[in-house]
Structure formats: C-alpha cells, structure tokens
Amino acid sequence: MPDPTKMLIVDFETRSSSDLKLEGADKYAADQTTEALCMAFAELKGDFFGLWTPNAAPSPELIEYLQNENCLIGAHNARFDQLIYEYVMVSDYGFPPIKKDRWYCTSAQARLNGLPANLDDATRAINAKHKKSHRGAYLIKQLCVPNKDTGQFNTDLGLMREMYDYCEADVQATKELVLNTRRMTAREHADWLANERVNDRGVRIDRELAELCVGYAKVEQDAINLELSGLTKGAVTKYTQGQRIKEWLLSKDPDLEKPMTVYKEGVKKLSLDKTIRGVILDTADAGELRITNESYDVVAALDDGNKSSVAKYRTMLQRAEYDDRVRGAFIYAGAQTVRFSSRGLQLHNMRRDAVSASDTEVIKHQMRLGTPLTDVMTQLAKMMRPTLIPSDGNVFVAGDWSSIESRALAYLADDKLADDKLEAFKRGEDMYLRAAADIGQHGERQLGKVIELSMGYGGGVGAFKAMSRNYGIHLSDPIIDGHKNAWRRANAWAPKFWNNLEKSARFAIRNPETKAPVSRGITYLFAPRLMGGSLICELPDGTCLTYPQARIEGGEITAMKAAYGMKQDATEWPRYKLWGGLLSENVTQAFCAALLRDVLLDMPNAVMHVHDEVVLESPSAEASECAKRLQLVMETPPAWAIGLPLQAEPEILTRYGKG
Fold this sequence. Notes:
It is a single chain. The chain is α+β, with helices and mostly antiparallel strands. About 45% of the residues lie in helices and about 15% in strands. The chain has a 5-stranded mixed beta sheet with strand order 3-2-1-4-5, with helices on both faces. A 4-stranded antiparallel beta sheet has the order 21-22-13-23. A 4-stranded antiparallel beta sheet has the order 14-15-16-17. Helix 1 (about 20-30) packs parallel to helix 3 (about 80-95).
C-alpha cells in the first residue's frame, strides 16, 4: 500500500473534439482526438515541481516518482486525470503505468472536509494563498475545443504559455488545499477506490429503447409548446420560457405571487420549480387557491414539459461507450453527509415507480411500430430505470434496506424509550400503521407513512406538507401540528436525541479539542486550527462529518455551507444554522451511508448504488446464490452496529426497476 505521506500532485490540460461536459470523462479520454497539452506536477512535501509538454521528454526524477509504488498520485477530480494518464500518457507517450490504488482524489478530500468540490470554490473557502485562476475558462475555450467552422485547434503560442502557467498554478492551489485540510484516512481512500471500481464497470443501457424514447419525448414537447402558445395567445411559445410564463401568470392571477415567492440568501425571487408547481396545482385542486382555468392549465403544461425525460435519455446515449455501458456515474462523498451522489445519468433522480420489465417490453414494441402512447411524459419518466439493463446472459440482483433511516435513528438514540421501536422492527411490525396509531389515526397507513418519514428529524408543518404532496394528502396546519405533537409524545426518545446532539455540539465549540460524546460512539470535537475552526462529528464506524468555520453566534450554532455559492465580491461564504433536527438527520444519513460503503467493499460485482440500494450484475445461473449472499451481507450488521435490526430482500431483475 502506498505511503500516505508521499504524494505527487498532477494536473493535465487537454484538447479534444469530444465534448467533455456532454460525453463525460470516460468517453472523452478514450476519444482518438484527445491530446495532452501539458502536465504540471509538484511534490506534496518538498520542492520538486515542474511542467511536462509533448515536445520534451519527461525528466528521470519525474519517471522515478511515477514508478514509485510507495507514492500516491493526487489530482483534483482524480478520475479525469487517471483516465487521461491511462489513455493518453501511457498509450501515446510511453509513460509508465500507474496502479489504480495509487490514485488519490483531492476533490474527495475537500468534500470530506465539508468544502465545495471544485478547486476554485474550495481554495476560496479556506482563503488559500494560491487560488484557481479565473483565466482558465477563457484559455480552455480558446485552446481545448476545436473551431466550430474549421474544426481546427488554436495553437497560439502566447495563449499556450498562459495555459502552462495556469496548469502550474492549479497544482500549487491543489497542494495548498491538501496541506490545509484533513487528509483522507486509509479507510476513506479504500471507500473512494471501491466506488471507482463501480464507476469502471459501468452500467449498460438499452440503446434502442433510449433512442425510441428521445423520439417520443420530442413529439410530446412540441405538443406542449403548441398548447402553451394557444393558452397564452402566443405570449409563451415554449415551456422553457420561464420568465415569460411568470409574467403571464401574474398578469392573469396576481395572487400567484405569494406561492411563487422564495428567498435565496435573503433575496426575494419568483420561482416555478417542481415543488412550487406542485403546491399551486394541489392547493387549487383542494379549493384553497383560486386561480383562473387558463392559469391552472399553463402551470400544468409547464409541469408536464419539465417532466420530460428527453434530456436524460440523450445523456444516456451521449455517455454510453462502445459496449453501451455508461461509466463514471457515481461520486464518493458527493453529499455533506458522506453519501454518494450521481452525475451524468443522475440515477438518484429517477422515478421509483418504474414500469415493470414485462410492460417495458410491450411498450418498446409499441414504440417500434409508432403507436401513440397515452400520457407520454409519465410513461417515459417511468421507463428511465428499465432502460438500464445487464449484459446478455446476466441479470441484476438489487438489494434495498427496509426503513433503514427509521431503524438507524432509533438505534443511534440508544434510549430505552427507542428500544420498543427496534423490537417492533425485529418483529416485522408495519411501522407506518404504528405511526398512524401513534397519532390516533388507526389504520391510516398512508398518513402514517408521511408522519414517519417527515417527523423523525424535528420536522413540522412544512416537512409534512412537502412529503404529503407525493401521497395526495391535504391537511390544515392546526391538524398537522397536532399530529406532530402526538408523534413526538409517542416517540419521546427522538426529541431527546435531537437535543443531546445540539448540546454536545455546543459544548464542543465552547471547549476546543475536548471530546463531547452523545451515544453509540457519536462524538463531537471542535478543531480550532482546522479551516478557521471546524466542528467534527465522529460516528461509530469512524466516519467524520466536518462543519467548517463553525461558531456560536446569537445563541445559534452556524457553519459554512459548502453547497451554497459565494459571490465574487463577498468576504465570507454563506452560512447555515446547525440545530438538533438537522444534526440528527446528518448523523443518521451518514451512518446509513457507512453501511452501504461496507457492502460495496464486500461485493466486487456491484454496478450501481442508488441511495440505500445496491445493484449487482450476475450470470443468470448464479443469480439465486448471489441474492442469498447479498442478503446475508446486508442483514449482518458490522461490528460498529451490533444490535441494529436490518432487513433486505434482494430482487432478481432483467431490467432495473421492478421485477
């Protein structure tokens, strides 16, 4: 295993006829037109630093570093640099191969530190001396993409020298970022590598089905645009004309301003995003909002247009490689709670109520014949998951934990009052019916489900409404508030847990470098010299949640919010409030993410993971044994979660989604 104290940081600048944003790093690197313009490099703890260009041989010292198996190779968004090295540097310039386990992602390190993922924002957030140059975007546009008219690349020597300087500056910025934030532990690095192996395998798409869906979606979009033009008498001609739609709606129904109003960083804005469209349509249906029929129809048409899956199907086709597999879809620690996120395919955003495999085959046959489909947008959205398929002769084996966050929340509280809930899980009791009974609504399972899913992290009326819209449940604020209070009385351990987390976090900030334990191995500690003072929450498995620049102000705990963008002229990064409900959500989701990472380390044939679900690809003849093995692994708690009742019943699928 490489020595974590030894690292050579590298950065490549490249050019290609392939579109990196559309096709993704894997397909870009493999494209025959992709070339390396330069490679900057710097020793992490030392003075070795330099630049390689194609017209010069690499120095013996650089080759020695690249061949030294005791040395890590660090890069920001390392998957890109690793692919460029493998496809271009080794193949075209004879550089020595580098084992995959030697690569180290400095962007992953930034995310684990609660910082933004991109180098520009991360270095600004820690006020680094070396920051990413904003000149880079201009240079990339000038030198790295071919001229649209001639297809030729710009070879201006002055700009190229600027590009070399820019590449060297990026390496210095990356070096400073690594030295001033917490390094990945050996386990975190192993988890990142495990996710990269999943990315390397990729997942296959049904190319024919994706192409058919793109065609059908385009027809439906044209129909929606025609409908909008008719409803607005030509004021709006496309569902993508957001500003025109807002102006037209407010001219017809001024009362819509209230539900459309949102505040971002204290600034009032008007929005018609998915949630707000749902609120307008639901409250109008319930008679709580009076708007004209024309306005209702415009909002509904806008909603239909934005349900279109055409962009996602196109992304599938653009990113699929020669074997119809899409690679590089998953990001380790993409969320602040060290959960995975996805890019490109955006697997985490696909509808869960997928069409079954058999129905997909029927619809696919109808599409081949050109048969019109009813409610095309909904049908296409439900067919996103089934468009993902295993290789010929294989099947998917998919396992998803049952009610994992509810189980984990009660377990982490480590309270006698929560033991009854854990025992109910062990008995296989229907927890949604139990939640309904908690609020005196016996038998109302759907209502119980909304209560259970929305109240566990200190949620109230707002959380309930956000969740209930998906289930067609409409209740008044006083009734929801009553249900909230009843649920909290029946689950008194939960508010106690929220409060204990917040108390320990406050104690840690007020007593730097002193551990403040909570329960089940959850511990807070404030590191005053890390990124301007960071609150760290360590979980039972060793996972660390980091809240940079944490402090108590006005009686509230606040920290830097990496997910928010910082304006160019701002002097401080946007902040957010840390309170008991949010802290409990963070530790619970991070705990569940750790369970998933354990499974990925144990399952070498994983091709996907979506939220709390693991998807393996197995030969059909071995599927039953594979499912048994996966169930055993998923239902056996690791040593740091002994006593946690886990339930998972893997399915064998010919297409992703439903059986």
